[in-house]
## 1
Amino acid sequence: MNDQTVADIKRRAQAVKDELVHKGLLSEEDVQHFLHLAEDWKPENGARVVARAWTDPVFRQRLLEDATAACAEMGYAGLQGEYIVAL
């Protein structure tokens, strides 16, 4: 991506955020909270869950029965994991 494309994306994202806040659909605090959570969303999180399931049979069973609750045990809950299914 070139600098102009990045600038355009940032400008559009800011416009969407401003409109959502203006209409009262989100507060500035909501946006900041979401940004804080998004910083922790990484592919490595899923890899940690899988690695634990490989090495801990009790956790694996909990993961298969209720992946949302099992992932919450590892701190992956809320917006990043409201409903998780493990196959």
## 2
Amino acid sequence: MSINKVLISGNLTRDPELRATASGMPVLGLGVAVNDRRKNQSTGEWEDFPNFIDCTMFGARAESVSNFLSKGSKVAIEGKLRWSQWERDGQKRSKIEVIIDEIEFLSSRDGSSHVPQIRETEIPEAPAITVYDEDIPF
């Protein structure tokens, strides 16, 4: 058995990039910065080191999500890793990216703590699940 599951939260490093496949399927590209906290061996101080992660979302939700995000938006993403390899100008290239299954907005477009409410009609594939504190058994 193997597991391929990724959970990250961070800020978008650029505005989302919406494009389409040859068949017309929407594809949303995101860059997310996630900090890794490490202790500096020479100073003993804790420092944040950013990791820059490419993320991709496919389908109708990708188009809807693109309307609510911009550079600096804070998001939580659940997905899986995918490795790609291609050749350009005679050079072999490769990358690892996160394929987004679920995305949660943690800030609004203007950076305030008010997160926009999305109606189910705007993202038809999104399951509506609500969990209350009293639902958690501990």
## 3
Amino acid sequence: MNDAVFPLEPTASDAQNAIAEEFAFFGDWSERYQYLIDLGRKLPAFPEALKTEEHRLRGCQSIVWIVPSGNAKKLDFAAISDSAIVSGLIFLALRVYSGRSAAEILASDPAYIDDIGLAKHLSPTRNNGLAALLGFIRDTAQRAR
């Protein structure tokens, strides 16, 4: 399967709309979870050398590594998890935010989470992890400004 290269859509808003449209195709949450797992498999390869404590995201029950790069004009994020569903959640976040300017990241609330009903269908620990991931992305953008 080809690794995704972010951004996939021209703007964060376009990415969120595309996510909402894709998830609308599925009739139930078992299908949506399977789609999340499939998306997680499309994450770009993450170098083993970067799977260190320094790059570990705190606040997640699963192990998540994330590495930012770039500057205020364009921030990129490489990330992966040891959990298939969490890798899918990472894919969605990177689809919206990776490859964007710090200003666009900070101006774009993660509306896709409510739009697809994600928060209601994740365990409290996964919701906390997703919040930690989105917070890390936002904090990185804030520091880059």
